[in-house]
Amino acid sequence: ELDTDLAKFYDSYDWNPPFIEAIDILEKLSYQTVPSDMLKTVHDTMRCIHDLASVRVSSDLGADDLFPIWLYVCIQSYIPNIHSCMCFMEFYSSPVERMTQLGYCLTTFQAAVNYLKNVTEEEILKFTTNKT
Question: Which of 35, 86, 89, 108 is the most buried (most CB within 10 A)?
Answer without folding.
Answer: 89
